[in-house]
Amino acid sequence: MAAIQPFVLRWGIISTGGIASAFVKDLLVDPKTRAVHDVVHKVTAVGSRSVEKAQSFIGENAGGDKSIKAYGTYGEVYADKNVDAIYIGTPHTYHYINALDSLKAKKHVLCEKPVTSNAAELRSLLATAKEQGVFFMEALWTRFQPLALEVKRIAEEGSLGQPVVLHADLSGDFDIYNIPKTHRILDPDLGGGALLDLGPYPFIWAVLALYEHPSNKLAKPSNTIASMVKTPLTGVDRSTAFTLTFSPSSPSASNTLAAQAILSCNINVAAYPTGVVIRYERGNISIAAPIYCPKSFTVQYYEPGKSSTIAREETKHFDYVGRGMHFQADEVARCVRDGKSESELWGHDKSLLEMDVFDEVRRQGGYKFPPGVEKVV
Ligand SMILES: NC(=O)c1ccc[n+]([C@@H]2O[C@H](COP(=O)([O-])OP(=O)(O)OC[C@H]3O[C@@H](n4cnc5c(N)ncnc54)[C@H](OP(=O)(O)O)[C@@H]3O)[C@@H](O)[C@H]2O)c1
């Protein structure tokens, strides 16, 4: 019997920055190294604002593969008939226009986080994706990593009981006093600051552990409380802390989860090694930093009836070839192959929740983008 051929997804890459480079390197890792046999990835085009940059990007990240087209405009990638799906790796405030142009060209889209500058832009993109009948997903790669799938399985298998409180922080020392104010982490025109850049990662763990928990029945947080510390350098948020409360909508409601996520992000201190801690009625899960791509987690189970004594502890380690961005690409390929408009793991509802929460956090923190940054309000 002839072997079933894997589905081939042909990618066009928009931009030649740091994360586009990491993504392409992962795309080109042989899927068999991660036991994936049903899909493969091919890069067919790279678009940059400069054709020379596109050429050197292909040289550095794809071994100078002559079959990959180098374009000096993004528009040529959207128009390329050999491109099925587009990966967008531009700064946050360009995601909307780049994704809109891709969708209008009937291309499937994987767009870097945060998916847009605000929720209104995302709603507009989702309407366009629906009209065009194409797949659309935010590149929240953490949700697709094998470690995240295993954390979810253990968290929901019942032994730990209900989640009670989750702490997650992602910080990074961006050397803010020495980088140019036009750097994307500082420039308000590029959606600078901690929330939009780092906030998606503490948020994704709150979604996985609380929003998706079966007892929550996909109910949105009943309350969001936030505050920001701004840097006088450019006025963007240097530190942001936000709390999401999940609670039953009424005493008889089917969503019975009562739990809180305490989330934070910061652009002028290094990440703290703890990563994410999720505390349950009957134990804890601690996920090692970096929280966007953790490689191990530990589960502790309490002695029955004694939450002061750990009866059993287990640490799980994960290893694979590549950085871990290819798992989300496999998901895109399978969804496109199966004619789906969104992923079941990181679907449109979760990106919308993220952008609604971030809009509210910015409102409470008093962070307004400069006029014209938000293309839809
Ligand atoms: N998933 C993750 O772990 C992760 C990590 C880092 C960043 N990100 C996300 O990826 C996006 C890009 O981040 P990055 O670190 O890759 O940024 P970067 O290194 O600065 O690259 C951004 C690229 O976007 C293009 N671009 C288009 N208009 C631009 C403008 N006005 N100013 C600057 N660049 C412009 C440029 O490519 P051309 O010159 O070739 O057009 C540039 O190389 C952000 O939204 C960020 O949140 C995700």
Automatic annotation (TrEMBL):
It holds the Pfam family GFO_IDH_MocA. Residues 150-280 form the GFO/IDH/MocA-like oxidoreductase domain. Gene3D superfamilies: Dihydrodipicolinate Reductase, domain 2 (3.30.360.10), NAD(P)-binding Rossmann-like Domain (3.40.50.720). GO terms for molecular function: D-xylose 1-dehydrogenase (NADP+) activity; nucleotide binding. The keyword ATP-binding does not apply. Keywords: Oxidoreductase. Belongs to the Gfo/Idh/MocA family. This is D-xylose 1-dehydrogenase (NADP(+), D-xylono-1,5-lactone-forming). It comes from Serpula lacrymans var. lacrymans (strain S7.3).
